[in-house]
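User: Assemble these into one structure.

Assistant: Restating your components, then the assembled model:
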Amino acid sequence: MKIKAKLKKGVVSVKAMAKHDMMTYNQAEKKTGNKDDANFITHISATCNGETVFDMSTSQFLSKNPIFKFKFKGEAFKKGDKLLMTWTDRKGNTENGKSKIK
Amino acid sequence: MQRRQFLNITLGALALAVVPASVKAEDFRTSKPAVWSAHKMDDAIKAMYGTTTTIEKGVKLSAANVAFDAGTMATAANGGAIPVDFSTKIEAKTIAVFQDSNPESAVCVYEVNKYSVNNYSIKIKMANPGTIKVIVEGTDGKLYSATQKLNVAKGGCEG
């Protein structure tokens, strides 16, 4: 997972890319004949210093290797703090990524 | 029936996997499963918020880099990755994105927290031309929304 976080004027802007096929039910059925092979990120969250700063539940309709951009208030954080992101997919796999706020 | 059972088992496992990592966060896939299996936009919105009545203001939405302008139609060259940007100044509790061109309607639900600056950008896929709708649930309990009609030159769900 690639993450870029930048603190500017009290707001942290984050750009993150998750590597995931995001296979829909239809795509899975076409590929393997079984709808249940569909797999996509279902939940993604970000924390900084233990505080949740971003949290979303997602469906199969995000693009392949989806990109997320979001912002959060930066008063409580400083440059060099670590931003941790985690996603979970339908099959239960998880992946973590971290980045220092620049 | 089998698929339903499988889903329940997976969702249960997911909930277990997610909870320890983020105790406070709500996983809307577990708490509101009907939202994610609804085929029509209205059904999904109803499953999420209990009503489809929204106020069309306070939310900025643009898709495929075309600024939101009521009545105009944006065109996405590639349905596999349509950039969708939205923002709002409204004090929000949750923000949800729906579309009506894919087999199911819900795209994602954000849970807003005290650090959030509600300015987001995601990439979504759409199989056919359709409508994208962003709904902001305000802390005042009202629903605010913005919609954007979108033409898709090449469908994104063919794989």
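Chain B is about 20% helix and 35% strand.
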